[in-house]
Amino acid sequence: MSAPPPVEIDRLGVDDIFTQQARSSPDRQFLVHRALVLTYAQTDELVARCAAALAAVGVSHGDRVAILCATRPEATIVFLACARLGAVYLGLGTRVHARELTFVCEDASPSFIFSLREFEGRQYSDDVLAAAAAAGMPQPVLMTVGKDGSLAPEFSAFLDSTASVPLAQIDSSDAVAIIYTSGTTGRPKGAVISHRGLINIRHLFTIAPADQPRLLSVMPIDHIGYLGNELMAALLTGGTLVQLPRFDARDVAETIQAHRVTIWQGAIPTMLTRLVALDDLDSFDLSSLQRVWWAGQLPERVGAKILEFADEVGASYGMTELASITMTRPSDPLGVHIGTVGVPLADIEVRLEPMPNSLDSSSGAAASQEVFLRRTGMFLGYWNRPVETAEAVDDDGWFRTGDLGHWDGDGNLVIDGRSKLLVRSGGYNLSPFEIEIALESHPGVAMAIVVGVPDDEFGEAAHVSWVAASGSRVVEKDLRAHLQERLASYKIPKVFHEYRDLPLLANGKANRVQIRTSIVSPSSAPR
Q1: Segment holding 315, helix H or strand E
Q2: Residue 451 belongs to domain with CATH number
Q3: Which of 64, 142, 230, 487 could pair with 110 in a Cys bridge, judged by C-beta atoms 3.0 to 4.6 Å apart?
Q4: Measured in Å, how far apart are the chain's first and last C-alpha atoms?
C-alpha cells in the first residue's frame, strides 16, 4: 500500500494512515536509526504503549505533549502516540535556548514533557526540570541515549504500561502539532497544525510519485520539514525513515551509502552546499539516490554536482503554516529547478499583489509582488495569538506570506525574497536573494548572505558576508567584477565581509540577525 484511497484521505487522521500501513505491511522497515531498525508493526506496538502510558498520566484529547530531542525514534513514537490520542505534539529541538524553553512551556502549557538529559555536551536536565516545575507539569521523563541508536532506557521504562489506549474520536481538522517559529525577530509564535494540514503533503506525490522510498530524515523535530517532508511523506508512501540526530555532511554521505537512501526531500540548500564541498565526496556511493529536492535557492554548480549522483533533482516552496506549496516537475531542466520553485500543488491557490511603491525606478517595470496563499487545511492559527493570526489571514482565508515573487513564462513561481528583508538603499529596494544568487554563481563562493546596515548617505547600505569555497583564492575585486556583469550597479553591495563560516539557525538556514549584529557590532563577528 502506498496511500489510502484519495477520496477518503482528506477525512482521515494521521494515525489512520499509519495504522493502515502497519496492517498492510507489518514487516516493512519504518524507522532506521544507526543500528536500530523498527518495522511498521514494531513501531505500532511502541506507539500503542506510549499512547497508553500518556493516557495513564492524564493526557487526553487536545492536551499538549512536549519532547526535547534530536531526530530520533523517541520523537517519532511520541508524535504518533499524540496523533492516536488526539493530543498535540510539541517538538523542541536540541538548540532551544533555556529562556525559549521556559517561554514555550508557559505559552503552550504542555501536560507532559520528555527530554534528553544530554546531547553533544549540552546538559538539559536542570533547564527542563525548572521549566516543568514552573508550568506545573509532572516529573519529566529524562532520557539517556547512546550512539547505537537504541531507545533510551528511561523511555522504554515509561512505555512499560499495561493500560489500554482510550478510543479517541479524531477529526481531520483537529490539531496534531504546534510548531514554534525560531523567534529571531521577536517572541516565538506557535503555529497550530491539523491532521489535514500534514496530510496535504500528499499533493507533492502527484507531481513526483514515490512508492516505498527510503527517506533521509535529518531535520530538527520542531520543524515542518521533519513532520511533513520526512515523517508524513513516509507514512503516505509506505516509506522508511532513515534518521540522523543532526546534520553533518560526512554523516549524511555515509548514511546514504550504508542504508541506500533513495529520496532526500526538503533539504536546506546549506546542507547540500556542505555535502558537495566534501573533499572526498566522490569516494561515497550515492547512486541509490533517485531524487534530491531542496527548499530555497541553490547555486547552479551545486545542483549540477548533485545530478552527477542523483537521478532527479527538484525545488519547492513551503512554510510552517501551509507545509509544501509548490514543486518543480522532475522533467524540468536544471535551470528551472535553480531559478524557480515550480508550480503550485493541486490544492493551492496563489495570488500576487503589487506592493506600495513597487515600480523599479531603474526600468519602470513592475517589481516583485507579494505572495498570498490559500488552501483547505492550512494552519489553524497561532497559539494564543488571535491578533497575529488575524494579521496573517484575512476574512477570505488568504494567508499573507511576506514573500515576494513573480511568475515566469511557463507558470513557475519565482521567489524573489522577503518583504521584511528588502534593503532600502538610496531610493531603491534591493532583494538580498537576487544579490546572493549572483554571488553564489561564482565558483569561488560557498555561501553569501546580504543584509541592510544603517548608512548616513544611503539610509541603508547592502553588506554581504561571504565564505570562500574550499581551495578558492577569490578576493573582493573578483567578486565585484563578477557582479558588475550580472547586476545593475546600484545593486552591488557597498561592503564585503569575508568569514571562515557563517552562523546558522537550527533548521540550517543562515542566521541573518546574528550576521547583521556581527557587522554592526564587530566584536561579535564569527571570524
Answers
A1: strand 312-319
A2: 3.30.300.30
A3: 64
A4: 52
